[in-house]
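Database export, one record per block. Field names are fixed; values are copied verbatim from the stored entry.
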Amino acid sequence: MLTGALEAPGSELLGKDAACWRACPAKGVELSCDLCPVGQRDGILDFTVPGATIANVAIAAQRGWSTSSAPPAFGIG
């Protein structure tokens, strides 16, 4: 289940539905630039740039979430 979706600070996609850049039905999850308030989860899958990955892993560790990091597979902006 998708509980949160992130985009870079300043992106014109912030606040839009996470499915806005795909030909998918809306998910009811707004794109945010802040991982902290995204919601309860078991883990995160990170497709971001190295600097963002480091910050996201630190937040995940503080909250006891598992993490998986992968190189960016695609860009949306």
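Remark 1: The chain has one helix and four strands.
Remark 2: The radius of gyration is 12 Å.
End of record.
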